[in-house]
């Protein structure tokens, strides 16, 4: 390679200065106007870097203080609020449970009072009258039954007996509508339901207390005894 070629490859001072001016012009286009200064640029850049670092440290310290002071306070406040809410809900549930029990107890007492009042003041006298009417009709039916058997036929007594038995059946239905039920027939005496008005001798011990005849019917109202059934039973001596 010749000397002329080497000399041509090395830029001249004028070309170097021109290249630097182009680079400077390009930098002016990209940088803000405030950053474009002359010989004081290095000092200004250092000052701005120092300010930015100081500002960053200040912001970091403030953020750390906010997180250190505010976050625990919020946590404590939220925990306390949740605790108070839970206590209030528990108190409400407890109050509702107590009120419900009181309401149920009061409702039950009112129902008992109503039933007792209706029974003692209104139904009981009327029911007793119906029971006495039943007794009278049953006696009359027995007399007509005996008269019909004596006639040995379909005479007037037999017709009256049939009509009377129908009337007794209707009376029993009326009592049932008042929740009054006749005591069902039993083989042996139950002291809670029966009243023994007479005894017949029993030949064997196992016959003791066996019912021989139902003299007068007994009735109960809602499980309560209105009148015991009068019976004749056997007794072993």
3D structure, described in words:
It is built from 4 helices and 6 strands, in the order ααααββββββ. The chain has about 240 residues and is α+β, with helices and mostly antiparallel strands. The protein has a domain at about 180-235: Roll (Nucleotide Exchange Factor Grpe, Chain A, domain 2), CATH 2.30.22.10. The protein has a 3-stranded antiparallel beta sheet with strand order 1-4-5. β4 (about 220) and β5 (about 225) form a beta hairpin.
Give a short overview.
With 237 residues, the chain is of the alpha+beta class. The protein has helices at residues 3-9, 13-30, 41-151, 156-177, and strands at residues 180-182, 194-201, 211-216, 219-221, 224-227, 229-235. 67% of the residues lie in helices and 13% in strands.
Poorly predicted runs of 5 or more residues: 1-13
Q: What is CATH's topology name of the domain at 181-237?
A: Nucleotide Exchange Factor Grpe, Chain A, domain 2
N/C terminus separation:
161 Å
CATH class of the domain at 181-237: Mainly Beta
Helix tally equals 4
Please report the total strand number as a whole number: 6
Query: How are the strands ordered across the major sheet?
Result: 1-4-5
Radius of gyration: 58 Å
Characterize the biggest β-sheet.
3 strands, antiparallel
**Globular, elongated, flat, extended or rod-shaped: what is the shape?**
rod-shaped
CATH superfamily of the domain at 181-237: Head domain of nucleotide exchange factor GrpE
User: Mean pLDDT, rounded to whole units?
Assistant: 75
Tell me what portion of residues adopts beta-strand conformation.
Answer: 5-15%
Reading the helices and strands in chain order gives HHHHEEEEEE
CATH architectural arrangement of the domain at 181-237: Roll
Which structural class matches the secondary elements?
alpha+beta
Percent range of helical residues: 55-70%
């Amino acid at each position: 390679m010749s000397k002329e070629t080497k000399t041509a490859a090395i830029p001249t001072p004028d070309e170097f200065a021109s290249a630097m001016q182009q680079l400077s012009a390009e930098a002016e286009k990209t940088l803000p106007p405030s950053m474009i200064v002359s010989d004081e640029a290095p000092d200004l850049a250092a000052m701005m870097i120092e300010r930015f670092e100081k500002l960053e440290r200040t912001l970091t310290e403030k953020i750390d203080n906010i997180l250190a002071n505010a976050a625990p306070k919020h946590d404590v406040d939220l925990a306390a609020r949740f605790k108070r809410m839970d206590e209030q809900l528990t108190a409400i549930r407890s109050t509702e449970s107590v009120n419900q029990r009181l309401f149920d107890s009061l409702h039950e007492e009112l129902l008992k009072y109503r039933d007792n009042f209706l029974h003692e003041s209104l139904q009981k006298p009327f029911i007793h009258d119906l029971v006495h009417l039943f007794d009278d009709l049953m006696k009359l039916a027995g007399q007509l039954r005996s008269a019909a058997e004596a006639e040995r036929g379909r005479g007037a007594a037999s017709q009256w007996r049939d009509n009377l038995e129908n009337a007794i059946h209707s009376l029993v239905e009326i009592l049932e509508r008042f929740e009054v039920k006749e005591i069902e027939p039993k083989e042996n005496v139950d002291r809670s339901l029966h009243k023994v008005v007479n005894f017949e001798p029993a030949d064997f011990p196992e016959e003791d207390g066996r019912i021989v005849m139902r003299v007068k019917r007994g009735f109960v109202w809602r499980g309560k005894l209105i009148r015991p059934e009068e019976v004749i039973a056997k007794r072993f001596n």
